[in-house]
Amino acid sequence: MVEYTFLADFDLLADMRQDVCKRPWAKPAARLVMDKHFKIQRAHEEIRCLNIEICHFVTYMQDKEAFLKTREDALLESDANIAHQIWLQQQRLQQ
What we know:
By secondary structure, the protein is an all-alpha fold. It has 3 helices and no strands.
């Protein structure tokens, strides 16, 4: 059987001797400042994440370049046409 909890059982709502509108966090100016504060916090978090992602991306690009160079060298003797196409791809990536 499901137990029901009524709003009167919550201490927060039951003990409302003060008007909520008079609380500091209920004032429009305070809410704006809090919103700005949390947006700035989130921006700092995003910067930290992006700095990590940038490192991952740079590593990916370096690995891809090394892989293409290795494949180009390996195919140079056996299939010069494909090796040339790999070289062209590398040139496009470097632009």
